[in-house]
Specification:
The structure is a homodimer of 483-residue chains. Chain A is of the alpha/beta class. Chain A folds into three domains: 64 residues, dopa decarboxylase, N-terminal domain (Up-down Bundle); 257 residues, 3-Layer(aba) Sandwich (Aspartate Aminotransferase, domain 2); 103 residues, Aspartate Aminotransferase, domain 1. The first copy, chain A, is built from 17 helices and eleven strands. In chain A, the strands form two sheets. Chain A has a seven-stranded mixed β-sheet with strand order 1-7-6-5-4-2-3, sandwiched between helices. Chain A has a four-stranded antiparallel β-sheet with strand order 8-9-11-10. Chains A and B meet through α1, α2, α3, α4 and α5 of A and α1, α2, α3, α4 and α5 of B.
Chain lengths: 483, 483
């Protein structure tokens, strides 16, 4: 990195440093399975290893990469490791990396159509491609005439907040956005299951309806929302003069991969004018394969449908697909048009401005990640990956059933297996800590029926039968060791 | 991109394709000034140029890049062009590109400290580095003992929404997050100037206080908020039984770069317990240079301070710095702790979990962009760039003063010059369209004193005196042509 006029980096320097960085990333990824999966550093150690001030003068790429190796890498938990079974897979396929690199390199803003038309239109096409690949209804696509369409959000949390606000404003005829909310009398009330993601509670808090007005509906033995409990609560709220306006249906809960019954919940919710939001954040990916499209039953009731290609599917974070049956409610809730953003294209009404489909104003050219993913891997390749992960989870389930020290804690759901030690919570917790502390693999936990449970989510891009078999051997040994 | 087991891309393929992508980006950037600056495509043309379905099988990097050249590039407005004078500079310095590439390549999640400690701690250090580089108060840093600290947000819009929600919950003792808002009686009221960014109106709408409860305070002849008007409105609201809770102070308005008087507004606001938020989105960067730190006058009143390194400073989008004098209010408003996110590090109380400092749950390793920027360029280089842009704007201002067909529409503010045609709005508008349609440069407009005004923002990374002189020649010719 030589110094130049105004000290901007020279493009030849960038070229050389960029090649080094690509090689570094390839090497890191090739060896990602060799690091302790979960970081072992002490709080404050990375912070303390960095100087207290930025340098006055430029440094070389070698100096920076040396610090990446010695300071950053030991402080990482390695989400790209094939021994990653924690949380969810954060797959960032190499093909997607290239699209993201291009996005950053182009450095364009997609807040308005006019600020870079390709940024908007490639995104529209990628949402359509994805809707077709998953077998979603035509109504969600741009390439049919109609009021629907899709958009990329950063995360499912932002997507559900945006939809809850759109639903809130729809339910109040826009008054909640102008006059503000009045939750003291005839409050707006939202519904979700007790197993749904924490982002629902956060959304209820942030949008001003308040967590007191988010009903956590009981679940059945498969950890799916009970339609009878939903109906009872809805009617009780109506009788009490409240205004039910929103229901979230989870397809693949975070804890155990439970699927709420969308046909029943959706039908009742639509009868009463509620906005039906579907959170299929991780497991939505499975619909790439026809045999898993049973999850779409009842989709005709959904106002909004959300899943994260940045989880299982392989698009680098952040990349969350949100489709709307009619986009106008969202646009009405989010649209602000100051003079300095007015332009002839917007005024013509012939374009869409994605800034009105999201909370932030600025936006990256995120669609390139999806475009490169689809073209670099192909749909057939993505389906192969999904099927393989489900097959591995099925194997693990069978081994688990045959192991007397462990018991299943929930029905296997696609690529997710939940189990616990028969000796109780302390044993399960001790097992989990021992496995994570070993550095050999990563697992996380959840609570089901009041019990401490280990979740094993099989979805990392490079996880193979060998990794799962080794993981199982370690799990079995850990189960024996804690007795 | 050969096909492989499960059709994942091979790392050697990634290496080769990655090198090609780096070279492509270097070439694009070297020639960014040669494209028509603003895209000239028709609505729908990019969408129509893409097939209607994703491919079944993988394609080569050559095939994809050929489409980038023929479909995407003509559909871009080139924010990295040295002839970019529109909106704001979206500088993505090459050094920062490398950090972003690494972030995507590592593919880790920074939602919790434990999900990758380095992701949190490098970010903490980068916020401290930036606070020192700008000369912000010690209270905003982590490396002093105290309740303050900083965080990276995606955009200033998200930052102000997060702060408005934190202020809302602080003002209601948390009740707005649990019970929900009651804006019918004793409503919460926020303040900002009539020249502030549209994100304030959007935040008021989204957080549930409603735009009716956002007061747009009058500005003076320099388009800065009038403290007397603020005081009058505040007292009127108090007399009417409303609850003033938040004021936004803009340092560098979007339209003309106006600076609200923070000392006076801040003092009054703090006396009445309002949260004082500072939006220095673009111009905050100038404080890298000591001679521009006058903008920090009154900073002792600020509860939160926000600026975007992804604008003028050179960090690739998205990268918005938010500092808080006490972080607890924000964390209280945003924190949700479901069982599946509990972990020993969080329980120990010795770490911070940045997911509680933002709206989304997931987060990228954004701090790498800043780390590479500072180390690749050095603070001296960044200061040189800022000074050079301000010098160029000063030159432009002098030329403008000597041109009888044009008149200044606002005092020059650092790197921002606003002007209009003396013949009136139609002439100014015609000039703007002619200049943008020429493809030679980009400019945007605003409204000041009810008049149509052209903004010229000089801040693109590679803009030099030669580009500004050429731009000025074109502006002068356009001014003559519309007479």
């Amino acid at each position: 990195m030589a110094r130049l006029p105004h000290d901007r980096m020279d493009l030849d320097d960038y070229r050389r440093a960029g090649h080094r960085m690509v090689d570094w990333i390839a090497e890191y990824r090739g060896g990602a399975g060799e690091h302790p999966v979960m970081a072992r550093v002490e709080p404050g150690s990375v912070f303390d290893a960095l100087p207290s001030e930025a340098p006055e003068d430029p440094e070389t790429i070698d100096a920076i990469l040396a610090d990446v190796d010695s300071i950053v890498v030991p402080g990482l938990s390695h989400w790209q490791s094939p021994n990653w079974f924690a949380y969810f897979p954060a797959n960032a396929a190499e093909a997607s990396l290239l699209g993201d690199m291009l996005s950053t390199g182009l450095g364009v803003q997609g807040m308005l159509w006019s600020t870079s038309p390709a940024c908007t239109e490639v995104e529209m096409r990628m949402l359509d491609w994805t809707a077709r690949a998953l077998g979603l209804p035509d109504a969600f696509r741009f390439d049919v005439d109609g009021p629907g369409g899709g958009v990329l959000q950063d995360t499912a949390s932002s997507a559900v907040l945006a939809c809850m606000i759109a639903a809130r404003d729809r339910a109040t005829g826009g008054r909640s956005g102008t006059h503000g909310l009045d939750q003291s009398t005839a409050p707006l009330v939202a519904y979700t299951s007790s197993q749904s993601h924490s982002s629902l509670e956060k959304a209820a808090r942030l949008c001003g309806i308040g967590t007191d007005h988010l009903r956590l509906i009981e679940v059945d033995e498969a950890f799916a929302m009970r339609p009878d409990a939903f109906a009872a609560r809805l009617h009780a709220d109506l009788d009490a003069g409240a205004k039910p306006f929103f229901v979230n249906v989870t397809l693949g809960t975070t804890a155990s991969g439970g699927f709420d019954p969308l046909p029943e919940i959706g039908r009742l919710a639509r009868e009463h004018g509620l906005w039906v939001h579907v959170d299929a954040a991780m497991m939505g990916t499975a619909a790439l394969c026809e045999e898993f499209r049973g999850m779409h039953a009842g989709i005709e009731h959904a106002d909004s449908w959300n899943f994260n290609p940045h989880k299982w599917m392989g698009a680098a974070f952040d990349c969350s697909c949100l489709w709307l049956r009619e986009t106008e409610s969202l646009v009405s809730a989010m649209s602000i048009m100051p003079e300095y953003l007015r332009n002839r294209a917007t005024d013509s009404g012939r374009v869409i401005d994605y800034r009105d489909w999201q909370i932030p104003l600025g936006r990256r050219f995120r669609a390139l990640k999806l475009w490169f993913l689809y073209r670099g891997i192909g749909l057939a390749g993505l389906r192969t990956m999904v099927r393989e992960h489900v097959r591995l989870a099925t194997e693990l389930e069978a081994w688990l059933d045959a192991e007397p020290r462990l018991e299943s804690a929930a029905p296997r759901s696609l690529n997710m297996v939940c189990f616990r030690h028969v000796a109780g919570d302390d044993a399960t917790r001790a097992m989990l800590h021992a496995l994570n502390d070993s550095g050999d693999m990563s697992l996380t936990h959840c609570e089901l029926d009041g019990r401490f449970v280990i979740r094993c989510c099989i979805g990392q891009w490079r996880t193979t039968m060998e990794h799962v078999r080794t993981a199982w051997d370690r799990i079995r040994l850990a189960a024996r060791a804690v007795e």
